[in-house]
Amino acid sequence: MSNRFRNCVATIDLAAIRDNYRHACSLAPESRALAVVKANAYGHGAVAVARALQGVAPAFAVAIIEEAVELREAGITEPLLLLQGVNSAAALKAAARHDLTLMVHNEEQLNLLAATTLPRPVHVWLKIDTGMHRLGLPPARVDDVLAILRASSACENDIVVCTHLASADNLDSPYTKQQLDIFAACTSADDLPQSISNSAAILAWPASHRHWNRPGFMLYGYSPLTVDHPEGHALRPAMTLSSEVIAVREITAGDAVSYNNRWKADAPARIATIAIGYADGYPRCAPNGTPVLINGVEVPLAGTVTMDMITVDVTRAPGVKPGDHAQLWGPELPATRVAEAVATSAYELLTRVSARVHREYRD
Ligand SMILES: Cc1ncc(COP(=O)(O)O)c(C=O)c1O
Question: Is the pTM of this model over 0.90?
Answer without folding.
Answer: yes
